[in-house]
Design a protein that fits this description.
alpha/beta; 6 strands; globular
């Protein structure tokens, strides 16, 4: 049985925690503060951001290519990944700078990298890329504020459970 969009998002969130060592990961969290709604986004200790977009249908992938924030210099994420079921997206269709990974398995699903994302150039040339990094941070900040507001209000316990966080319950 194929995984749903949200289920692949949870697998991607675990992947951000393990492979990318992200300490803060948000999965399938929607806010009203931004037009862009990442399926998963995380921040490793070094401070850059890793964005994951999940695509489970070819039509969704094709429609997504038209979104302005998917361009090379737009949107959230200093490192950007597309995670799909096997064979949904061809390597030559991956947007410039994006990585491609596939969610595979039976029972225990894992993420397999098909094409690496281009993060290293963003972080190693800080002086030339500083305006781009500031632009990314400016797009992520309203999303983070909205996410923190939802978490602080206990809005989405499903998010905590999916990430294995004990949010506590009142007796």
């Amino acid at each position: 049985m194929a995984l749903t969009h949200d289920e692949i998002g949870v697998v991607a969130g675990r992947w951000l925690r393990s492979r990318h060592r992200c300490k803060v990961v948000l999965v399938n969290l929607r806010t009203q503060q931004t037009r862009e709604q990442p399926d998963a986004i995380g921040w490793p200790p070094k401070g850059w951001s890793v964005l994951v977009e999940v695509k489970v249908a070819r039509s969704d992938f094709l429609a997504d290519r038209k979104k302005r924030h998917r361009g090379a210099n737009e949107g959230m994420g200093q490192e950007r990944w597309m995670v799909t079921p096997p064979g949904l997206v061809m390597l030559e269709e991956v947007p410039p700078g994006w990585g491609l990974a596939e969610c595979r398995g039976k029972g225990a699903y894992k993420i397999y990298i098909i094409k690496m994302a281009e993060r290293s150039r963003l972080n190693r040339t800080r002086t030339r890329k500083a305006p781009r990094l500031a632009k990314i941070a400016a797009k992520e900040q309203p999303y983070l504020v909205g996410a923190l507001n939802k978490i602080a209000c206990g809005y989405d316990h499903k998010l905590y459970e999916a990430m294995g966080i004990d949010y506590g319950t009142e007796d």
